[in-house]
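Notes from hallway chat w/ T.B., transcribed later so I don't forget. T.B. wanted the structure written out for a chain they're using in a teaching module, and asked if we could keep both sequence and structure tokens in one place. Agreed to drop them here.
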Amino acid sequence: MKIAIVSPYFFPKVGGLESYVYYVSKELIRNGHDVVVITSGEENSTEKFDGLTVYRLKTTLVLSNTPIGFFWLYQMYRIFREERPDVISAHSPVPFIADIASLLSTFSGIPFVLTYHAGSFKKDQFLADLITNVYSNTVERVMFHQAKKIIALNEFVQSETLKSYHKKVKLIKPGITLQNTQQTVKRTTRKRILFVGKLDRTHEWKGLSYLIQALPIILKEKLDISLTIVGGGDYLHFYKKLTEQLNIQPYVTFIGHVANGEMSEFYQSHDLLVLPSYSNAESFGLVMIEAMKFGLPVVATTVGGIPFTIKDDVNGKLVEPKNPVALANAITTLFEDKKLFDTIRKNNLLKSKEYDWKIHIQQLEKNFNEIIKR
């Protein structure tokens, strides 16, 4: 097949959606397919790497993490006409670029498949959420209707966001790309907590500020702990200032951006992952599965798709969102209860085996083929 993948952002930009699209693209090529990627960029360009052809379309403006290009309709039309793909595979819920692909599929007759990543993209910001609500009830519905199939990456998106379109929805859980799960990094006696995520203002809903606020509470229990924060973004100064205000700088390390291929070292050298998100936009949390592959228990919140993956006292601890005290208590419990910690560690090593790239790609190929042959 020749597959045109349309994504709002793409490698080397960092994020769950970006990592997913990058690895799916590479796996499809490895299976003998021809893949082109159409994404946003600072300038118009065409690149070739890892067997991919990547078209980057110049972004005119960005609204709340949504890239918009005034000439994308014409540019994408020309790409589809030149490349003549068998199927268009677009990724959402970030608006605009997937909607253009959907519109062009109508006129070109090329089958359109939508992969929907998040349960919600509301951000607790009045104006942004107002625009989101209008979009969800108008343009996005047209795209859902146009899609021949909709791929949901987890049960939450399948059962909540896409429940009205259940006849065309297919659940295909993503895979894990990290390797080298054998312990190669020497641990210290200090208990090390890990947070992985974007530190942009638009990703404040990841809840890092609540985890930072939980740290002084944990330290009062005389536990020897540290927090490592992996990720970068335009809100980094805010989080650093918060650690200064709480006087916990010696216990917090900001690493910055780490390439996905280098994350194994951090999972190996830490004891616990915390995902304190407070929005249903956290529909899956791929970092949880990556951490579980290394046996790390996960402390996370009861939002979005997290409870479909994390079961309390089975894979980690679940707490209510926006609650530093609850986070602190859950972390403290896991560090003090060695039996529970070890049980969860064994459970997670087994659970992570459910997420296999080979199975995911095979199911994608099957669904692409089905709509092409209609």
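Follow-up for T.B.: The chain has two domains: 2-175+356-372, 191-354. Might be a good example for the class.
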